[in-house]
Amino acid sequence: xxxxxxIRGRTGIKQDIADTAHLMRLNRINHLxxxxxxxxVKGMLQKVKDYVTWGEIDVDTLEILLKNRLLFKGRRHLxxxxxxxxxxxxxxxxxxxxxxxxxxxxxxIADAVPVIRLNPPKGGYEAIRKSYRSGGSSGYRGSxxxxxxxxxxxxxxxxxxxxxx
Length: 165
Prior knowledge:
Radius of gyration: 16 Å
Helix content: 25-40%
Oligomer: single chain
Structural class: alpha/beta
Strand order of the largest sheet: 4-2-1-3-6-5
CATH architecture: 2-Layer Sandwich
């Protein structure tokens, strides 16, 4: 399972790259999508590599991401009971494990919003015009995507920027 995050905006982007990002549903900065790893997806990621960062997500990070940021129809989070009723999984951990193992595709989750919105990373990005290998942020980063995602999940703040108290 791959996680891809858009790190650069739309200004000055070539049309074919913009179309590929649109097909992947990466339309705005700090949006994340979960993708199954296959040749088509890898080719699309290579095409948008200067505007996106991606890597393999682990179960722990995926569980935190789903629990804190996954939205369902009506822009609402689900409790563990509602999750079991809606998806058949007893917990977010079970859902994350099924996604990693490939038993379930992200599109199979009923009424889930396909794009996960994140905050900018705490401490900021590295240079967004440089590749990750060169000390920047864009391109393939392997399992280091988990550290970036954890920096982008700010607990206690809802998606509209208000405190959840």
